[in-house]
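Hi L.,

You mentioned the student needs an example of a multi-chain input paired with its predicted structure. This one should do, with 292 residues in total across all chains.
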Amino acid sequence: MTAQTASDPVANRVVIVRDVATLQAAVAAWRAAGERIALVPTMGALHAGHLSLVAAAKRRAGRALLSIFVNPTQFAPGEDFNSYPRSLAHDVDAFAAAGGDLIFAPEIEAVYPEGFATTVLVGGPAKAGLEDKFRPEHFAGVATVVAKLFQQCLPDAAIFGEKDYQQLKVVERMVRDLDFGIEIVAAPTLRAKDGLAFSTRNEYLSAAERARAPLLYAALIRCAGALRDGAAMDVALASARASLQNAGFAVDYFEARHAETLAPIAALGAAPVRLLAAVRLGATRLIDNVAV
Ligand code: PAF
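Structure written out for the whole complex:
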């Protein structure tokens, strides 16, 4: 089915597919023609951050495939599954303008058919005590849906943003452990001019909260700089947490971790270090991270 939602002729070249047979026929035809296929898995409501992932897909492969599926199993009861923004017409236009080829937007039955009884449980980075501490079922839902989307879309590569750094590490672990044979490409976080990372949930911020939100990135950058300048880890982290609390954020975590395993790190040394943080500003939860 060709996009009916967009009046722009460019958008009308993007194909929207809802069933797996049609999707796999398109992918097989591209592969038979010698083309590489890169998947950008999303939950839709595309913003500039997503479009930077599409650009990374286009650099990696001849064909960019976007999946749009608001995955119920990664939301806990009481989280924003029902209110999560959905904007297919806008997404089609944005993806087409970014040079994308095909959108896979399955109905719930195509992902979780009647009787579905499988869960992919990743250990290691999925149990690091970061997002998993606050959203205990989240990565089981993410890993299960990403495994399913990989099997349905059969891409050569898949692009994940560093913005969701723990998710990226969980997917990398899963792909290695289960021999998916898919190249996982990490794309750098795209930020607004004031430093706030693009995120769908930024929409939930009031104007006053939006003005304060960049303080999260500022605290991460300042802490990384202090560590590089020789500050003691516990002192630098405590100071960052305190500065955010004083600015009105509730801090879920602000931690230094091994950049690959996400194991705790007590001091800067030879290992690559990542600072990861999650904070709440009013009703909105923000996550971000930087390399040290
Ligand atoms: O990052 C997201 O948007 C989602 O967690 C993903 C990877 C599409 C799985 O639902």
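You could point out the following to them. The mean pLDDT is 95. The pocket of pantoate is lined by residues 41-43, 71, 74, 142, 145-146, 164, 167 (CB under 6 Å).

Best wishes,
N.
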